[in-house]
Amino acid sequence: MGRNPSMLSPKQQSFFKVLLGDFSNHLRIPPKFTKNYIRPSLGKCVLRSPSGKHWDVELEKRENGLFFHNDGWQRFVKDHRLQVGDFLVFHYDGESKFKVKMYDRTCCEKDVEVAKKRSCSPTNSLANEGNQLALVKDEIVDLKTLNYNKDAENADKRRRKNVMSGKQPRIEDGDETSTGSIMFKSANSCFKLTLKGRCSLYRVLIPKELAVAEGLMSKKAVDIEDPTGTMWTAKLVVIRHKQNNKTCDRLDMSTGWGECCKANKISLGDTVVFELVKQSVMRIHIFREGPGNDRPSVVLDAPNIRN
């Protein structure tokens, strides 16, 4: 005779989630699991990663289920550099704690060393927290959550109108189309790239002067922070070539950039500004190609800029 799932010990229970859509802001617990194993009064929980660290995460009831959400969940996502396509397994203790195992798109368990080095205190807010509401278009989303996301979408529209930057870039002459001249202002070193060929979706040449000034020539990798706050690790490759009968080195960003482009729907014709926000960390700002294949004209105003 089969046993009623609700009569099983919650300590034996687990569920998995494949990360899709707007997972960096909230994640729904499977409704059947919520119904059978989670007490209705539970408003907060603790997520424990294989690193041994704990994250306090709020739970929110909505019409279509129970969600991990708010700053605690966003910190958990960012500290573990979770990406679209990652696979998470949650083991529930029956009270308020979940042990979480994380696997990347290679089906191998993720390296959580980065989480060991980060502080998990509530005061350690997300860098550029306001940008966490920025959404990536055309991803798979739960249609029942659209009403909940209205505020986020409105904030995203305002943010895109201001060209998505904590530095508040301005659009000259009030023209917000791609045919206008967009001034990107930053106190950090920047360079920009307009994607003209398919190879630019997989490989980026970093200007030599900037690479030397920022100490990137000796680095093996760099972290890319996209508009959602998700971090992508991209490999750096020094390529030796001949130029005017002289041997020169150039620095390319390769493996990892293609995945970032795919997840953020970056296409040929788009312009991307790479902002060096800290050592070996680049924040990207995406300017979409406009109607009629017009490319946005982006003017950088920064201490160390390269076009």
TrEMBL record:
Cross-referenced InterPro entries: B3_DNA-bd, DNA-bd_pseudobarrel_sf, REM_fam
Organism: Rubus argutus (Southern blackberry)
Entry keywords, A to Z: DNA-binding, Nucleus, Repeat, Transcription, Transcription regulation
SMART domains on file: B3
Subcellular localization(s) per the UniProt record: Nucleus
Principal location listed in the UniProt entry: nucleus
Pfam families: B3
Superkingdom of source: Eukaryota
Residue intervals of the TF-B3 domain: 12-106, 203-290
Protein name: TF-B3 domain-containing protein
Any GO molecular function: DNA binding
Record's keyword annotation contains Membrane: no
Gene Ontology CC annotations of this record: nucleus
Region (Disordered): 154-178
